[in-house]
Write a structure and sequence with these properties.
Helices cover about 35% and strands about 20% of the residues. The chain has about 300 residues and is α+β, with helices and mostly antiparallel strands. It folds into two domains: about 60 residues, no CATH class; about 190 residues, NADH Oxidase, CATH 3.40.109. Bound molecules: flavin mononucleotide. The site of flavin mononucleotide has 7 residues, from strand 8. The site of flavin mononucleotide (FMN) has 7 residues, from strand 8.
């Protein structure tokens, strides 16, 4: 680690000068900490956006910015932030408590072998316990721990059924519910810390979301599903610590969540399928997400197999 007082003044001035001008001359070699905008600019030379992203998400030796950013997240203020993460301010909304749920007794090996994509559903209803079981498998609080702070103070940390880079949990779970007993059709947000659902949209809005799905030749009757899960990412929760690499972590975490969801569905006797075909701008607009700080990054349909 280099401290400012060890660096000759003229070098510091040069560094400041270069950093200030680097956005306009990105090929210049920066000295010291680079402004975020140009941290990655000189890494990739691929004309393809996907390849460029891949290159720009690599760790490189001597990347002081990344090291400092990650180090910073071990400080107390960040631990407190992690503990308070995902506390929601739905003050005026009714909280819908979830029932106990169903014990998933199928062996893990059998569930893995049985998993298959399913896209034809009967349209029959299931009890709310099914949904409760699935949401908890995807993003349930499975345990709590205590982090020690200064002056003997302590703070409670929740642990989850899924792992998350830096304990940041940047993905929220929303649902379109269609055929769930004792639950109105509509759009719901699962608050894992309280283990409750918040209804954020009615049936009309949920059907509107279905209009944003890209229709394939084989028509699928989406509203015959029991629920459709929307994985909603807050990229900056992870990117504020990991930079571009944070987006990679988010995609990995969605992968873990989706596999938990598929396996839970299999164990419950339901079928499910990933759904990658939808228009992001339209779905984000309906849900009130800006598409950068909050965006739908994946979808899963699930229901009783026809
Ligand atoms: C990220 C992802 C997105 C997918 N998107 C779609 C989709 O939009 N439409 C579709 O019919 N299947 C979709 N699938 C399902 C795959 O077609 C399916 O998993 C694959 O054919 C293998 O079949 P299996 O899941 O039954 O083993 C998607 C799968 C994944 C992992």
């Amino acid at each position: 680690m280099v401290f400012n007082e060890e660096i000759p003044q003229e070098l510091l001035s040069a560094s400041t000068y270069l950093n200030g001008y680097s956005p306009f001359i990105p090929w210049s070699i920066s000295i010291g900490l680079k402004p975020n905008l140009i941290r990655y600019a000189d890494r990739g030379h691929s004309p393809l956006l996907a390849e460029n992203y891949l290159l720009n998400s690599y760790y490189t030796r001597g990347d002081i910015e990344s090291e400092l950013s990650i180090e910073h997240f071990y400080e107390e203020a960040c631990i407190v932030t992690q503990a308070l993460n995902n506390q929601r301010d739905y003050y005026d909304f009714k909280r819908i408590a979830l029932p106990v749920g169903i014990s998933l007794d199928m062996s893990l090996g059998e569930a893995m072998l049985r998993r298959r994509s399913v896209n034809e559903f009967t349209g029959d209803s299931v009890n709310l316990d099914y949904l409760a079981t699935v949401v908890r498998s995807v993003k349930g609080v499975s345990d709590t721990g205590v982090a020690k702070l200064r002056e003997g103070k302590k703070i409670r940390l929740n642990f989850s059924t899924i792992s998350s880079a830096g304990h940041l949990y940047p993905i929220d779970v929303y649902f379109l519910a269609f055929n769930i007993k004792n639950l109105d059709s509509g759009i719901y947000h699962y608050l894992e810390n309280e283990d409750v659902l918040i209804k954020i949209g009615d049936e009309k809005k949920a059907l509107h979301v279905l209009d944003t799905f890209i229709k394939s030749k084989k028509s699928i009757n989406y509203s015959r599903s029991n629920y459709i899960c929307l994985f909603v990412a807050h990229p900056w929760k992870s990117m504020s610590k990991y930079g571009n690499r944070g987006l990679r972590f988010i995609l990995q975490e969605i992968g873990a969540m989706t596999q938990n969801m598929h396996l839970a569905n299999v164990a419950l006797g339901l079928g499910s399928m990933d759904w990658g075909g939808y228009y992001e701008n339209e779905i984000n607009q309906i849900l009130g997400f800006d598409g950068i700080n909050q965006s739908v990054l994946h979808i899963i349909l699930a229901g009783i197999i026809n």
